[in-house]
Amino acid sequence: MTNFRDPRADVAAALLAMLAAGFAAPVVAQSVVTAEVQGLNQAAFDPAAAAGGAAARDMIIRAEVLLDRAGFSPGVIDGRPGGNLKGAIGAYQAAHGLAVDGQLSEGVWDALTRADPRPVAVAYVVTAGEVKGPFIGSVPAKMEDMAKLDHLGFTSPAQSLAETFHMDVALLTALNPGVDLGVVGATLAVAAPDAGAATPTAARVEVDKSTGQVRVLDDGGRVVAVFPATVGSTSRPAPSGTWAVRDIAHDPAYTFDPARLTFGLSKHKLTIHSGPNNPVGSTWIGLTKDTYGIHGSPDPSLVGKTASHGCVRLTNWDARRLAAMVRKGTPVSFVGQAAR
Questions:
Q1: In b/e form, how buried is each residue of 148-186, taking b as 16+ CB within 10 angstroms?
Q2: Both 193 and 240 in a single domain?
Q3: What is the pLDDT of residue 25?
Q4: Taking the model in full, what pTM does it have?
Q5: Residue 271: which H helix or E strand, with range?
Q6: Could you tell me if 80 and 59 are in contact, meaning their C-beta atoms sit under 8 angstroms apart?
Q7: Same domain? 223 vs 98
Q8: Mean pLDDT across the stretch 123-135?
Q9: Which of 84, 129, 158, 273 lies deepest, with the highest CB count within 10 Å?
């Protein structure tokens, strides 16, 4: 396993300081609040906005950020309706005694904004640490080529920044038209997720194969966090029954061993070095079911939308958050039937 300082931890700490100090932190450009930031922070619920356009995008982004902070992750923040957002809203409704339909209603909006009235977007100044790399340009398609790299780092400053703020690269680009994301000192409009989010201790975890979600429950049986997930497939299903967390690894290397794994990605045993574009992302939560685990993903936009080889795939940031909630021995139950 490779040990290195993850600059995203510093960015997250800076965001917390910004919000706590009313945006007085030095990483925010003084007296610069872009029209995009204003629009996101002032977005209001409007049923008519469902037809699309900038108003709909801003409304959805604000809801996505607030859900992320509340522990009901929509996955990647992209400003678009979709299954992961619907699942997050449905889980939030169920946990807060609201009628469950997975729709962004005025009741859901009021509950989210009352609970967390803080800004959902900030003007952020790009630092030298975020653009120095090294960046790998593109992720090799073949595992043999991945194994030749010393580190499966980010492909570009855009990917690094997007992951820091839990955003889709396309949305980050759209919010900052004409801005070179790789320039030190560039001021960007970005989402501000995870601002002061609580990290409850999990009494147990449920992996729901039918809904494609990972649920965290406290010792009273209350759902305290929900994450969208890719959970196996019909051809290579996730396990059933109850297992437990065996180990947790941050920035893990990934070993593919054809003698132990049933999917034929390579004929040879390979070790893929650590990094956010590693096949298991930046976090591995190993289970007592041999070769199975809950882990991150090199492509957050595909979480919940494509099949996996039996494991449970989350976004990198959701996997890190879950890892902070569980301990060795935390029960993990697989329920439901795989939908794909």
A1: ebebbbbbbbbbbbbbbbbbbbebbeebbeebebbeeeb
A2: no
A3: 36
A4: 0.88
A5: strand 270-272
A6: no
A7: no
A8: 90
A9: 84
